[in-house]
Fold each of these.
Amino acid sequence: MPTGDIEVKAETAEILNSCKKLPFEIKDFIKKSEALRMQYRYLDLRSFQLQYNLRLRSHIVMRMREYLCNLHGFVDVETPTLFKRTPGGAKEFLVPSREAGKFYSLPQSPQQFKQLLMVGGLDRYFQVARCYRDEGSRPDRQPEFTQIDIEMSFVDQAGIQRLIEGLLQYSWPEERGPITTPFPSMTYKEALADYGTDKPDIRFGMKIVDVSDFLRRLDIEFVQNALSYPHGTVKVICIPQGVRYLKNKDLESLKESAKSQFNQEIMEIICRPDGSLKSLLTKFLGEKQQSELIQALNIQVDDVVLLAAGEHKQVCSALGSLRLESADLLEAAGLVLRDPTAFHFLWVVDFPLFLPKEENPTELESAHHPFTAPHPSDTSLLYSDPTKARSQHYDLVLNGNEVGGGSIRIHSAEQQRFVLEKVLKEDSEVLFHLLEALEFGAPPHGGIALGLDRLISLIVDAPSIRDVIAFPKSFRGRDLMGNAPDYVTPEELEPYHIQVSWPLAERGKEKL
């Protein structure tokens, strides 16, 4: 028979349960609204794609456990969910306690606990860790998410990187093809200069090119103004076949995007069929200089060049964003730039240790977190000029998405106290337990956390990380199935010494 090898002749049939009319058909090609899928998630889970995603996720996690515990002697340790506030980093969820005015925090990562485990002699720790961040309404982010969390004693950056490359190679699904190790590496400065971001998508070209030296000798007012600043620069990206694939409205949209997001003006240069250039810039360029520019940028007929002048980081960030937007537009028009079946891993290293605060640039904040050790060559800069110090932080990037990040940690109590008190101006008493632990012979240590949800979503090419999580929250952080978060009565709040001050709009709703 076509459905199997065994034919069953039924004598009796018992109905175990009935099913009422479904709110949507359980077929992958049927379009369902995101809200409806979230509301009836238990039905959505019956779809082939979600079944495949969750089963593959389970298989990959099992393989990771095998690799870490069975092959490399790691110990799986569960760390507490109820803890206290950590200085810096993302905003944390608060949990009330029965002690008046005292709250727990849900940890944004097991960072402090895994460092304490190193002090405790568990020199190879790992955990499939639940983490929490109160980041509000952010698309494709979840308030609770999962990390593959790892920490090791007596390890350096190269040791962590080789471990993760082996872990991913061992757990990688066969149907996605092999991945090649070691992964390439790039410094933060190189990533920003060439791609305009610290998580570059290296599947396609269109790199940012510096034309400052070429244009410096020309008497062009806006160029000279830009280059007169301390970090002034002029850079370009070249959009291949831009004339053929992009409409005028697309170019205007790109320029408006740079203006609205980065306050950056953009000038376009178009290569005509006869090889000449069409641009406001050409009136400042002779034939020889136009030819030199075409040769320097390897401009082909129908290419479009986008030029930006100004402060280095702003220019790079704007062109990096336009690079990705241009790629989206070209692919929407039919030009394939990024192979959807290709997986390009990249290590980004040598990040700055500190960055100026956005709200007050005279003050510093940790580029990642306050426990990151300075680069061995820059230890003296930590005390003399911390703004110039590089860190021992490293990010793992896959196809332009950050899928992991870690660092070698500060293991000296004295140095950790200096960073907290003198550089970050934080109250070190909040971390008294960690500082004290470091004084008891803490070994040098470091680690990394892989974002499991993001990694799986890239492997299965899911449009959102919600498609690889069994019961995700909506992009506003709500559980539409169980209607959480929900109101509680004043009587339930009383043991926690909390009263709710209702906004006027909410009061009106309550009366209705």
Note: The chain is about 35% helix and 15% strand.
Amino acid sequence: MDDTEETAATPYAEAIGPLPVLRDTTTHAPAWERETSRMGVADSAAHALFRGVDPISPGTIFAKQMDRLPHALVPSLADLSSSITVVRRRREVGYFRRFSSFSEAFHDPVPATPSALELVLPPPYLLPPDGEEPPAPYLTKARDARQGLTGYLVGWHQGEYSSCPLALRGQYYVKAPQWWSDYEVPYGVMAEPPLVLTYAREELRRGDPAAWSVFRAEWAVSTAVALLQAYDERRVVLLYPPRLRDWIRSVGATNIAADARGEPDDEVEGKLLALLRLLDELPHTPAFVERLTNRAPSRRDRAGWVSVILEVGREGSRALVDEDLAPYELPYSTAVTEARLAVPNPLGAAVARRRHLVRFPGGGDVPPISAYEPVHPASTPPEPRLPPVVLPRRGDNAEWSQRVPRRIVAADALEHGDVPDHRFDVLHHLPPRGVALGLANFLGVDADELERYPAGYLVSALCHLVVDVSQGVLSWCRTVPEEGSTDLEGLLNLVGRRALRDAFSRSLPRVREGAEDRRRRWSEVGDGYPEGPPSRRARLEEYPSGSGR
């Protein structure tokens, strides 16, 4: 950014007058009058937004936005955007002028993936704090506005968004594209929306290809910067979706890590690539997200990051998981591996606790010879495989105790409190015929008996059944003698069909009592109870016994 651009904007308070104070309504009208008297802003899209949201007192809507811009600058006419009549902070001076030049020279269709050629501002992108950064709550609210089917792409400065009626938002804000969920960051990630959304909002609303190409490239850079900052400040890696990582790689780690002279910073580049490689190795499944959430259920952002550490070796930087996420096999750090080996197993065996390594017959970490599939050159015939190991009969107690695993060393016991019964309340209005028939055939009970309960009760009871069985197996394992056990009937009695049927029958009353208690509490607060859509409520009235067909 050259000197002429630096001096092309002056502080708003010096050039126009004092900013309006949001909590002092007497300052809104005078500030709005001063704003509308500026040259070239009365007919801007920004002022149309203020007047459209609140035609009676647009000064209040103007105050809501300016309250978030204490460092606002008045740009020159060449750098004045119709989407916003000020420059939010010093580092953004000259942006709209650069974007206009880029847009005039843009004649190609939007490429399949973004590139560094579509970045309007030059590096560096990893800048030290200058005191003008938006507070974290502003970035969080901007992210929340993008969620759902009716989400909109909103800048962190647009505090008036919450005051805009839903019916009018499509006239003034950029609708989040249908593909946006594939590129969204997890909750709690402090990634700033692209600058083009602030200074070329109208171009994005019109579907301008130049604006959208810049949007993608800037979003890749912004999320990459947030990824690096999260590691530097918190030693975590943010769980970005695969397509967003593809955008970051397409722009290029070399370009994102470049300094003011455009030369890459090898250390920063290696760090970014190491974090991206680790993200490729992590499972992106609902089960893995649930595993993270269970570590801190009270933290809404816990599902969006994993603790990591960077280890630098001869082959460069490598990111390793620095928390125990068993039973998942991940590239763990040395500290996690050593901690597993040092902690004695709560079941009594001096082995690693909840290790991510597979436990093989015999209780060891090394698979038996019969488990190997040797690879041989094409010129040499493979050696004959050893016959599989045949376990002795239960009567051979001496040999049996040597061959049968002496302990189950990995146990992650569930508790009944882990079962989210309230999440199944939305199923209470469903006829249980299909669920009841499936459970009746498996458990060997009468389907008519189960049809007395709504589908939500049956699903909840099925979850509690898993808890009951897991607790029973864990208790059985703790009673196994150190030298082995021949009491396999005891284990079969825990997981046999009769035992499952009894456990399921015990769970149903608990589930019903809990649902009735929630129904009573919902009635007390006056919010009603989620009984389902009217059409399905009518269907339940048609089949009062709950056996709708």
Note: Strands lie at 10-11, 73-74, 152-153, 174-175, 236-238, 305-313, 316-321.
Amino acid sequence: MTKGGMESVEVFTSEGKGRGLKARKEFLPGDVIFAEPAYAAVVFDSLTHVICHTCFKRQERLHRCGQCKFAYYCDRTCQKNAWLNHKNECSAIKRHGKAPTENIRLAARIMWKIEREGSGLAEGCLVSIDDLQNHVESFDNEEKKELRVDVENFLEFWPPQSQQFGVQFISHIFGVISCNGFTLSDQRGLQAVGVGIFPNLCQANHDCWPNCTVIFNNGKIELRALNKISPGDELTVSYVDFLNVSEERRRQLKKQYYFDCACEHCKKQTKDDLMLAVKEGESKPSAETVKEVIQFSKDTLEKINKARMEGLYHEVVKLCRECLEKQEPVLGDTNIYLLRILSIASEVLSYLQMFEEAADYAKRMVDGYLKIYHPNNAQLGMALMRAGVTHWHAGLIEAGHGLICKAYAILLITHGPSHPITKDLEVMRVQTEMELRMFQQNEFMYYKMREAALKNQKIQVMPEPSNETSPSLFHKKE
């Protein structure tokens, strides 16, 4: 089954998984398999005043809707483009007295669209909203309680003059949002800013080692090929970060998406040995020592999270150094607990302008990531970019340029050349290439010019560290 704009894929029944998507033609790494606008989407509650409600871009100055005083837009163009979806919402917010939560706003936008267009197949969609999985029958008691509260709050918000829907259908929509909501990121792809429903993307099944990735770019999601895909191959994406052992990934998938992962990497526990690696040789630690260090690492990560929430970054650095001192004689270079501490330490030290130490930790982190992640993984590309920028700031131009080039090669595939983060990276690549040539011609003069440049311009402060990792694929209400 295919539909307008989706000629390259078709829905099929995937053994043991239900519906899935498969390719109808060959794709090469970096090819866009399809681009899909949101059926409906909203900005997160905490960001409604700093993110445009139409294009989801972060802007310093936004125009506020004069009627409801809730929605914000880049300019009149974005406001005009939003009116079809915002019109009912605007009057409902004024009647209700305040805006409801993001889940209720998203459910309302979905149902106003159904009111306008019906619940059948929308233009360009392979499946209807009615046919999307809701997994309500798999909800535990706490989730069922939250669902009842959402339905009650929705009914309070929903205008009496709009088409009335039954409780069962409203529950279905909330179930669809819960297990099919896709995280929308800002224009640079660095922060999760909203949630949307994309019916075609919802048909792509999970694999821990997928052949596709998903990126939000210029108001649409793009499904992009990570490696060569032949006609008839199933198209898969990863719902969770690969940087967890198979047992933990399966636990996450069961809890969040209600299925047991049976991918090859989970069945064979591929790379689990790397992620749990310990030091080898004559000084190989005992199982008891490894257990103690892992527990110490878990406890330290909790303390780090608390310190980061309070903005105590020097305390974070102190905790990281203490943890690394315990980890280094015991854990292998690819152990995930070591890599997590290295990642936090490099990010926070960069923010504190301690670039040389940050660069050392960042290099060790990406060396571990390169042995674990898929070679075209977006998280790997972003980590290489951060490490490259850190080395560049530290004056390590050769290593910095090399890491930035590796990152650029990956992001060309995962994000594409038109994505803002790829464009930023291309500027960095050109700049570091120019500086590297200068360094190779006259190392002494390079450092003198660099020193002079740093004196004459305020050093760029790295973004403040946050507890939030790179935006995950699907949004799950906490």
Note: The CA atoms of residues 26 and 230 lie 5 Å apart.
Amino acid sequence: MKKSQQNSLIRDLMLMRDHILLVHTSETAGKKNSSNIKKSKNKEHLFPYSIVLSRINQEIAEATKSSKYYNYKSRLRDQQQHGNSSSSYSTWLLKKMMRISLMDLPMAILFSLVMLTLVVQLYYHHYISPTIDAARWIHEDASRLQDEFTYYARECDVADVTTDSIRNVILQQDTSTISDDYYEEALDIMMTHGMAVVPSLIDLNTCEELRNYIMKRNMELTADEVIPLDTPQNRWSFGIHANEHVSVANALSQLSSNELLENVLFQLLGHDPAVAEITAISVAPGAEAQGWHSDVKQLGNSVKYAQTFTHSYSLFIPLQDVTNAMGATELCPGTHYCADDDLHDVCVEKGFQAGGDTGEDVWKAGDGLIMNQKMWHRGAAYTAKTGPHRVVFIITFISRPKFGVDHRQLSHGTYFHIHPHMYGHTWNDLKNAQSVMTWPFAPLRSLGIWKPPNANWGWDWVTTSATRIANDQNGYMFEDLVDFVQFHSIGQIIPSWLHGSTTEEGGWQLYFKETIGNFVLFFEIIYVFLFLLMISVTLVMDLCQDFYKHRTKSYIQRTLCWNALIVVITHQVILKLETTNYAKSVQQKSIFARPFVAKSDNASNYNLFEDIIPITMGKHHEAVGHRLTTVPEKNDVLLGNRFDSNVIGYYRNFLNYHPGNIRWRDWIAAYSELYKSYCGLPSAFQSHIRTMIEHDIDQKGRVLTQNYYGEWIIMNKEDVQDEILRNIEIGIDTIHAALDKEIDVLSATAKHGTLMRSSSSFQIAALKNLGDLKNVLRPGQSCIKQSINVRNDTLPKWEILGPPSAFPMILLKSQPSPLRHAYRKEKRSFLPHFSGTEMNPQVGDVVLANFRGSGYFMPCKVLYIEYSDYGVVEFKYGVGVKQSDKIAILNRECKQCPITFEDATLGTCFPDLSCEAIDVKGLITNVFKDEFALQI
């Protein structure tokens, strides 16, 4: 019988029983009032009722054996008839709650943990581990160091320090009167000096309240909270939660409401930049000076690799007035363009403190110093014998991750110290820190699980850790892994048998993989064991009651329902993860992808050995169909294309602040309008302006551009003239210049965009169309055309002040001879002086010359002798070199000694420009091409 039919039968029998009882009760009550009823007849009358009721109850009992609902209902009805309904229902409810809490709920929670660990394992295997592999930069492929250059390894001296006073970088205080032009001026200060002071970011009351709280926290710090510092004696630092005290949230709200700071950061880093650090540093009297340093490593920052690493800015806000004697931060402005490993001497000579220029000056409480993290600085010594602790509130900002569009990863070297719950937040979150950056939203945001619908993702803990694991960064080195397992509070909580392998080769990546796998296996074993235990218990209970209540079947059904619900929820979570931009970028292999095509990918079409050859100005040489490459210098004009991107913020204007480009833009700005005013006049007038600019460039540097692989190449004379003409026509900071810049960005996307690399024909077509558009939008064409036929003899006289290029020269002889160093370490004039020449070179001689002040002497041919000690030379670097040639090797064992040369025979040369040199004793030495020359 079907269950519905069975239930209907039970219902009908129960209705029939109720009806008979009702009729019998009413009849019996009526007959009790009659005195004529005989007892014998009454008994005969009651007999049929008892038989029918007994039969009906028997049928109901048989039918309800397999129906729990009606079995319970019938029992409840009977209990109600006997007056025990309340206590029986309570007993039933108590049994239900105990079954759920002791059997159903624990198993559901345990199954949820199994599914959670499986999801984490899936997420790690399919997303986090590929992210680590994609972010692996130096260790995975050293060629990326060369392939992803955007600038060059610029070495700096004292002339590169851009200012000597904090007064020159203080921005306007009254934001209500600030114009758009002043925002541009503020950006110019930031790009020029690498820092600026924004007054009155936090009011004095909040400064005092926050300072008192930080001082209290310094006394309560645990070992896990302390941030390591250089010269830690009398210094304390820790990561701060936005809501661990009301003063922190108030300070964040106040500084984020400053329009000037917001505009500067949004222009530098893009809209709503990410928060990478919220910390405090306290310094007490007696603290020694830290070493001069940059917060990011030279091999992993945006100075040389602007499309590979993010640029970041730290905001320092003192919470009390700071004098220089209290150890105000020492600054070395302009060094954010430098690639030197050590600028200690430069910064000691030219650096200054943020406290001011005189003893009366102070760094005011609440004034923020925003600083490029690549700029060299240090914490100064607290020289005053007594005084208050110097407490500084620090927040660091970087560009938000835009996975699939922006391929940059975090710069190397800096810790980005931040409270574990503060990852993933952005500038806009600081405005509402008390509601947005609190429990439980902050931890979920930090783990990359959830954010408010209208908010933006910052750098969450998972992605941040992945990038740092990939390159053995601070906090994620092998030593840190060992410390985590042995000493960290979390590592100590995890049982030793759940920890993964701790090997130097596998590092954190292998440790996480094995640890997650151990947790999955552990929860699976526990779940299976407990499930079988529960089944056994219910089975025993059923056996004892002859399977009357079918507890085993019921338990299995309930467990399957709970598990099915958990599986459905888990599946929806996985589907949601797969639709995120992060997951899509990993699946498409675009996360942290190479921003440019690697030269090795086109090795068959590009001869590396012939192409990387340093050359000088003058006649342009070609090699195997390609222009020769060179190393830029500060006075060169760099017309690169690898900064043409909107995702890097204001850094797309990076090259405008290169010394040679500053001079170039000054020339263009000075003569652009004058040039345009000459339109319609004989071409000699406009040609004169072009010639002046060209001559200035020839005297002080070269014009370089970048080839497809980012290598700097010297532009030939015709290209330089055309570039001068085009820039004069469009001007500086004009609508034409803005359109020209946008076309450059689109052209760079066509050249280097990941979506464009699959179709070279599409790339070529796009670049051609953009080039045509650039020419169409180029102003002044009509003026150029009408002046083409003007006679050249109408040109005004132009006095040549000196040769285009001049170098100190030394004659190279076949026998070793002591030679004097020709380059003095000082700022060079147009024609560097040379003294101590022992031989007078002649035109046509092969000599060694200091290649543009680099300190490397290379063979060259004398073209012109201006005086006895300098002239014009042509470098023939590596031309005609073959095995067994007799060469002279430059001896550099003693840099302070006179330069000498040794006889040797040339061995095998390698693509990296090094060669084997076999000396007279037969010893083989590896030397670079700039360290030897052919003997005459």
Note: The chain is about 40% helix and 10% strand.
